[in-house]
Design a protein that fits this description.
The protein is α+β, with helices and mostly antiparallel strands. It contains ten helices and 14 strands. Helix 1 runs antiparallel to helix 2. It is globular.
Amino acid sequence: MIEPDISRNLSMELARVTEAAALKSGRWMGRNEKERADAAAVDAMRQVLGTIEMSGEVVIGEGEKDKAPMLYYGERLGRADHPEVDIAVDPVDGTRLVALGMPNAICVLAIAERGALYAWEHIAYMEKIAVGPDAKGAIDLTAPVAVNLQNIARAKAREVDDLTVVILDRPRHEQIIRDVRDAGARLKLITDGDVAGALMAAMDNTGIDVLMGIGGSPEAVIGACALKCVGGDMQCRLWARNDEERALAKENGVDLERIYGIDDLVGGDDVFFAATGITDGELLDGVHYRGKTATTHTLVMRAVSGTIRYIHTTHRLDKLSALTNIQFD
């Protein structure tokens, strides 16, 4: 048997990172301060990531080095020389959801072996279709919506009108929304939370069968990490917003018609994924503060073993603050 490059199980250490971020960001729920909610999560993530025995490089982050406090592309984190890993991070998937006290805001983190993650960040959006393991191999981004829904329904031993599609509620999706409705499927529109949408499509008991539409390219890679862990499937294609992005792609030899499969977005199986709820949602409970304690709900997964863990945690805020030097209470 070949020993994985990331031989140590880092799941619980990553859970500590997303829990810390959620505990800090959750204080800003409903206060209409999305920048502060995001900055709080970033600060907590950076501090806890720095304690992990790994050599990590941020390849999916929030900005460039001079745009602090973001976790920037190329930032090095961890306190060891090995294992060498790529880091994909979305400190708050759904900052507006936190700011307005709406459901499904989560803190998200994934790591993979060095060089495994697709990281060309110059085009911000991708067309996407994503499903869980029971519909793996049944999707084709180049096919009409109705054909995809028929194939997904067949794979899941259902009818099309049994399926629920999650789509970001954006003007660019008017046609695909019409196509879903014309095909007879049910529809869940979400205002934000691109990664959460992919997770809902992949996991049992969310009521969601497929993610469709155009969303962030970084979020596509992070979502692919989660899908790789559960055995799901995803296809994406870069979506240029304007002539400038089309010219940039041409200049760099990037084919805008190329379909990226899940293995193109995330190579290999040395992948870990963690997410902690900030606000309550279909996938995870949010942070609940109880004076001297707080509770969190976290999902952690590992692709090489196929392990999926849901962790309900009660935190003693004074002890956690003393241990981490992060003020939680």
